[in-house]
Amino acid sequence: xxxxxxxxxxxxxxxxxxxxxxxxxxxxxxxxxxxxxxxxxxxxxxxxxxxxxxxxxxxxxxxxxxxxxxxxxxxxxxxxxxxxxxxxxxxxxxxxxxxxxxxxxxxxxxxxxxxxxxxxxxxxxxxxxxxxxxxxxxxxxxxxxxxxxxxxxxxxx
Length: 157
Fold this sequence. Notes:
This protein is mainly alpha-helical. The protein has one domain. It contains five helices and no strands. It is elongated.
């Protein structure tokens, strides 16, 4: 049981740790090249939340089934699962499509730039607005994950 707790806690930290940096990695960028670089970095790092976040959920459910945490209808359990589902809806339903659309817009903008140095390209308004949306969606997902951590630590009844 101790090993499962260790796996659960470490996978949550390793899985969600990089995700807390995403809003900062996506800080306001003025050029197409800067936006693309930030988005590609975040895309590579998203492997951690996908892999280790899934492991944290699975190990958490196992802990609940094996442990003496009480019934499933406790506020911290229901709250954690509900917020987790909300984060997944936010990421899968809104964030991922917005990121893909943004990468397409940036590639299109860079292709139209011709001989202009990519780092100096002005960002079109639509891409800039979408970039801000992606950054804020990451910030909201991070804030919700902090609430999950708080519920898991405090275990309110």
